[in-house]
Each structure stands twice: as C-alpha cells, then as structure tokens.
Amino acid sequence: xxxxxxxxxxxxxxxxxxxxxxxxxxxxxxxxxxxxxxxxxxxxxxxxxxxxxxxxxxxxxxxxxxxxxxxxxxxxxxxxxxxxxxxxxxxxxxxxxxxxxxxxxxxxxxxxxxxxxxxxxxxxxxxxxxxxxxxxxxxxxxxxxxxxxxxxxxxxxxxxxxxxxxxxxxxxxxxxxxxxxxxxxxxxxxxxxxxxxxxxxxxxxxxxxxxxxxxxxxxxxxxxxxxxxxxxxxxxxxxxxxxxxxx
Amino acid sequence: xxxxxxxxxxxxxxxxxxxxxxxxxxxxxxxxxxxxxxxxxxxxxxxxxxxxxxxxxxxxxxxxxxxxxxxxxxxxxxxxxxxxxxxxxxxxxxxxxxxxxxxxxxxxxxxxxxxxxxxxxxxxxxxxxxxxxxxxxxxxxxxxxxxxxxxxxxxxxxxxxxxxxxxxxxxxxxxxxxxxxxxxxxxxxxxxxxxxxxxxxxxxxxxxxxxxxxxxxxxxxxxxxxxxxxxxxxxxxxxxxxxxxxxxxxxxxxxxxxxxxxxxxxxxxxxxxxxxxxxxxxxxxxxxxxxxxxxxxxxxxxxxxxxxxxxxxxxxxxxxxxxxxxxxxxxxxxxxxxxxxxxxxxxxxxxxxxxxxxxxxxxxxxxxxxxxxxxxxxxxxxxxxxxxxxxxxxxxxxxxxxxxxxxxxxxxxxxxxxxxxxxxxxxxxxxxxxxxxxxxxxxxxxxxxxxxxxxxxxxxxxxxxxxxxxxxxxxxxxxxxxxxxxxxxxxxxxxxxxxxxxxxxxxxxxxxxxxxxxxxxxxxxxxxxxxxxxxxxxxxxxxxxxxxxxxxxxxxxxxxxxxxxxxxxxxxxxxxxxxxxxxxxxxxxxxxxxxxxxxxxxxxxxxxxxxxxxxxxxxxxxxxxxxxxxxxxxxxxxxxxxxxxxxxxxxxxxxxxxxxxxxxx
Lengths: 247, 665
Hints:
The structure holds 2 protein chains of 2 kinds.
Chain A: E1 3-9, E2 18-24, H1 33-46, E3 69-70, E4 73-74, E5 96-100, E6 109-111, E7 114-115, H2 118-125, H3 147-157, H4 164-168, H5 175-186, H6 189-192, H7 195-208, H8 219-223, H9 231-246
Parallel strand pairs in A: 1-5
Antiparallel strand pairs in A: 1-2, 3-4, 3-5, 6-7
Helix pairs in contact in A: 2-7, 3-5, 5-7, 5-9, 7-9
Chain B: H1 17-24, H2 30-33, E1 37-41, H3 45-57, E2 60-64, E3 82-83, H4 95-105, H5 112-132, E4 157-158, H6 164-181, E5 185-188, E6 191-199, E7 202-210, E8 216-220, E9 223-226, H7 245-250, E10 256-257, E11 262-268, E12 291-295, H8 298-305, E13 319-320, H9 322-326, H10 336-348, E14 360-363, H11 365-378, H12 386-412, E15 421-430, E16 433-434, E17 447-449, H13 467-487, H14 501-520, E18 524-525, H15 526-541, H16 547-567, E19 568-569, H17 579-603, H18 627-630, E20 632-637, E21 646-651
Parallel strand pairs in B: 1-2, 1-9, 2-5, 9-17, 18-19
Antiparallel strand pairs in B: 3-4, 6-7, 7-8, 10-16, 10-20, 11-15, 12-13, 12-14, 14-15, 20-21
Helix pairs in contact in B: 3-6, 3-13, 4-5, 5-13, 11-12, 15-16, 15-17, 16-17
C-alpha cells in the first residue's frame, strides 16, 4: 500500500520542531508500524538524509520503549497495543498518518520522536519497592495469597512504564502509572507494610516532576497498551488519604 | 601468550562445595566496602540483581545501561517461567534432579560444580522474588502454581502468566531503584560501554559513550562486572535485542567460550517478509498443551502453502504429530534443540505449511476439548454440546495463555483459538559467552561476567525457564559472595585514577573506532550489512552446519567485514545523539563475533545440543557427540584477523554424572 507520513522532526537541523512529509510506496500489511518506519529510514539513509529518531527495543510489546502518538493516539488507533505490535493491516492504502512524540512537560523531547521519561524512574525510586535486602526472604509459600488478589496485583503490575497514560491525558498526569505501582504492592501482604508511606512519597515525587493533576477523564485507561484500570487511581487515593490522616 | 584456564572449582563433595566454599571465602569488612568501587554494566536480571545486592552490601556501585531506563533490559521479554527445585508439587524434584536435568539438557558440555550451585540457589530466588512482590501464579489455596517445561518430567517452573521475565525484572528494578534512592548505586542511563580498561592486567574501568550527547567518558573502579546479555543478534533476525558489550571485553583479552552454542527456539512466529526486523517467541509453555504437527502428505502441505486448504481440512489420520511419534517419552515437551531440528526436518521434507515453506502447526484443539470436558464435569453440566465444550475449554486456554494468543493474533492476523498457530524455529539464546571460573571471574582479574553474558551453566543447550534462574542466581546469590575473593585483595588499593595512560589509550581507541565508522561515508546502510551478516550466519552456522558450508561462510563474513569498512554509510557525527552510529559499532562487533562463532563451529567436529554438524549424526538423525575428543570448553582469545583467534581448552571433568547418549525417546 501507499502511505503519506507526516512526522514530527525536532532537534539538530530541525530546530524547535516541525512536521515533515514523506511518501512510502512499498508498505505491506504484514509489517509492524516500526518496520514501516525502518523502511522509511532505510530510504532516508540511501538519500544521505538524517533518519527519523524513534525509540524501540524488544519489539514484542513488553519493554515499554516505543513511544509515539499516531493519528492522535499514543501507540496508535488499535486498543491495548503498543506501537511495535501495531501492524499495517490496521491502515488503508492511501492513508495519511500523523506521527508525533509523546507530549508532556515532564517528558521533554530529545530528538524527533524520542522523549526523556526518566521522571518515571525517579517516581519509582521515591518508594515503588518493598524494602527488603537479598537473602532476607522467608519461604515463598509461607504466606498464602488469595488467587484473585494475586491476579489483581498482577493486573496492576503489568504496567510497562511507557508513558502513554501521560501522553493521553489532557493534564499530562502520571496518576495511572504511579497508582499502578502503588496498587500492585499495596494489594500484596509483602508490600502492605509500607503502603501508606509509599503512596505519600511517590505522589510527592510525581508532583515535583511537573506532571498534572487527575481530573477523572479516563483517557489514560483507554489508551493504556496494557489496559491498566483507573481503579488503581482510586486505590492510590485511598492509601494516600489514609496515610495523610495517620501521619 | 600462554593462558592457563583454572576453573577454581572448590574441593569436596559436589553437594557441599558451595556451602563449604562460601563459609571459608575471604570477606571484605564493611568499612572497606564503603571505599571500594564496583562497575556493573547491564541492568537485566543479572545486572540489576547484582547492582542492587552489591549496593545493599555497602559497595559503591556504578551501574550502566544503554537504555533510557534500567527497566527496558531485554530480560523483560522472557515469557514462560523460572525453574526452581522447590518440589512444591511433591513430584520427586530435588536439587540433584534439577542439576542432572540441566547437565543432560546441556548435552554434557557444562561444568558440574557451577550447575549444581545454580540448582541449589534456585530455591532462594523464588523466596526473594515473592518477598519483593513478584505476583507469581497461584492456586486457589493461595500457594504458588507450577508448570512443566521441555526436557524435564517434573513441574518446577514458576510463572507469572506469559510475562515472567517482566515481573522478575520489575522486581529487580525496584530493588535497584531502592539502592539508587539510598545513594548506594549511581545509575547511568543511556550510556553504552565501548571499551574495557585494564591497568596492570586487572580490569579497572570502562569507557562509555553518552548516547544523548556523544560524549566519551572514563569510569574507574576496583573491578568490573559485565551483565550484558548474549549475542543472538549476530543473526539479525532473532528474539533478542541488540547489544555486544561483552565482545568489547574480548578485544581486551577476555576469552570467548563456546561461541558456536546458539539456541534455536522451536516456537517462534515465522518470518513473513524481507522487511522483518524481529522474531517473536511463542512461549515454550505452550508446548504443555499445544500439539506440534505437519500434514503427513506433501500434497496437503502444498495445498496449505498455496492457500487452497487450511489446517482444519486435514483429517486426523493425515496428520503427523512428529514429536509424539519420534519421542514418545517426552512428546511435545522435548528440549528445544531436539524440537527445532525436528521442525527443520519436516520442512526440508516439503511438509512446511507457510507460503515460505518454513512453518509447522502448533495446535490447541485437543487441549481445548480436554479442558472443556473437565470444566463441564466440574461445573455439573451433563451431556454438554460440542459448542459448550469448546466454549469452556477456550476459556481455560485463554486464562493460561491469553496474552500469548493475543500477541499472535496481532502479529499474524489469525485467531489461534480457531486455527492452529504456525511456528518455526528462531535464534533465541546464546549458551556461549565470556569464559568464567567458579567465581564468575573471567581470565582477566577483576572482570566478572554474569547471566547470558557468561558461558558457564547451560552447556550446548539451555533448558526452558533456566535463563531467568541463572541470571538471578548469578546476580543475587553468587557474585555478592565471590566478588569478595577478588576485592579482599584490593582493600589497600586507592581509588583508581581515570587519568592514567591506560584510560587515555582506551579513550583514544574508542574515538578512533567511532571516527573510522563515521568517515567511511559509503553507500550502504548499517542495517543492510547486518541483514546480510545474519543471512550468512543463519544459512551456514544456524540449525545445522557442515564443514564446507562453514568454510565458505568464513570467507563470506571476512569479505563482508572488509566491504563494511569501505562502503558503510553512517549519517551524522560522533558528537551527537546518533542511533545509526550506535548500531554501526555493534554490527562491527557482530562481524568479528560471527567469524569467531564459525571458527568454533568448524573446530567442534561433533554434534551436541544446539550445535548440529551434519557429518556427525546417528542413523536416526540425532546429534552424535564425541566425548573422547570434545568434552572440553573451547575458549577463544582475540588476535589479529590475519592470524585468527587462538583457542584455549578447559577439559570438562565429570565426577558425578555418567556421560550418556541423550535420549528423549
């Protein structure tokens, strides 16, 4: 199929940023979206032009590296799908596709479609862990955990830290990301001990990084490639409030 | 130069070696740990677990990753599970059995003592992970669930749906994050190690490139730990991501052991076109329930390839469930090397089922029916209809493998609940790696290698769910002890000076290498060279190899390398964010690695595990080992390319296990 791509270029010769248009004539439906971009970059390199910078790593939908907004949707129009798992059969011959970086002030653009998401690491460093050293653990079966509880904790733990929730939110809030970690650990007995303090510290760091407030819009869940539920935000708020009252 | 390979295996009975050694090895006192600096490169399971544990112990750790965050390391993509000899299922598992299965699975080409220790500490890993909040699958009683993997007859695999690697890595990443927040670990994201620095023969630092700015930096420490993963990307198409830092240590004298041992995973989504950049694994756990088959008749296979028939048109009697037929004892759960070769044999006989001719079926219909019937009974439905059984069975299969089936459908556009999956083998893991002794120390003093980056535990073939186990064993439970053997001798060593001539020399060498690549200004992209290298490797040094093919591949790779430095085009400069340049340095390494792999494959005149030489097979087409002449580790020393690498041998001594022909029949 033939496609027209409108791609955001920023940094280097493109300065503070602009859209650039490219035509691609040899796209097949079995290609992944990133492979389609590989083809574009191969063409650009052949023409001795600067290829489009975009991030990618595992290409299996799990590492959370790929990050771009496709036709207004973080990771593109297919629900619960990362960009690397999006395939061109979801597009039609003759389509024009607009590709931009994730946009949020806490995710500054580095180049073209590449943004800096180190703010997420700092939120985890603020408390997204169980304070246990290697070698201190008791037998793994010592504490039975109800199957449904373990499964709910797992659902929250599937967050891949890609930042689509932030890119989707009009407030650029990181509540879904932060709450997924708070919930994952708060639901398990191993993480319960520090649950309140964790919520306090992670929320404080989130604010410090310049992410916006949550106004219950829900686009984060709708665009999350792993379908992380906004219920986690409610759970985090509960942990946060009970922590605030008891401190 | 003569290199003596001393494996430093402690004396004493196999089962007591680690305990005794651990209790008598040298320690570094807390006040000294605070002064000692350790560099850890890589933040996958091995690197993150090592960096966090060393930080907990009080060392000053500097940790490096080329990703934008430590959480992106490729361990995250591991699907199926992690083995541990817990015997929670009461099915006869034990440390010895896990040890034995691993030695046998590795086709008797790994070191007994290392493997036994791995099996021993496997139990601690599960405890540790659960304590970190890793949400493993559980039974209704609240206790941990297990499943089976290839090459074993017990259920010892712990799992978190099809995302076990992700959950374990997040656990390690969280521990690492905690140490970063406590100031014990200094984290360097987007920094790629480009060289190792040796001072007076000891590993004392690394040269990195800041990938955002292109700045070349020197980092000094008392020792260096590499946890930089495997080299499967030499083949271009693989289930791996792209890295080659370990090779940079080989250039500085570390030995590369058994590079020809590459694992080809039997169940990956087949290649669909030339543009393809990546192969996606379908977890081995699927072989618990999926049945592998091809049409028994060539004309049926042809009709499927041409789209005139589908799998559903082939009656039961015309299907060949070849794994069940050839290996009745293990059936669909034979080890990976055996399953991969069997798929190749079927496709070579013209029975492949994709348009390319390179695919076999993985079919869940029987499992859906079996589970459906059992669900109907347990929910009290009498005489359930066929549709009801399918509905109930589909739900069970979905609960077990839902995310894998979803991924398959996204990639191929086909619904695997209705029609069988098409799968084909692909490069997945590299058993070879940096040579290390019992302490996980390479032949370069002060240089350690962990996880997939070392060669030590999996012999010629790794069993499923053992990579996660080894990465975490090395990082959490081995290196924190064994590093003391080296560092206890360094407590009087002041902090290493990054301004020494050795650092300057290494920095200059790196800059020269980068400039060389940028200044070729040829006409072909890095990607196109990588693809060509991958094709040569896959065709001649892949699932089956022979001397003639390997010899011609050697020539082709050499020519390709020469062409690379004459005609590669790397846009931009070395002083900026430049992903093409990053790729160019790695592909340059892959060419050298590829050449060494071919030489190793050519040297090893036997078939074992993932290394199948067509000249050495039994009448039934199984791998034929030569224990008399090849029960050794081949460790290759970097040398000028005119003379080629030099091989050193470590003879493998088997005191506890009798070498047998591996049989899964």
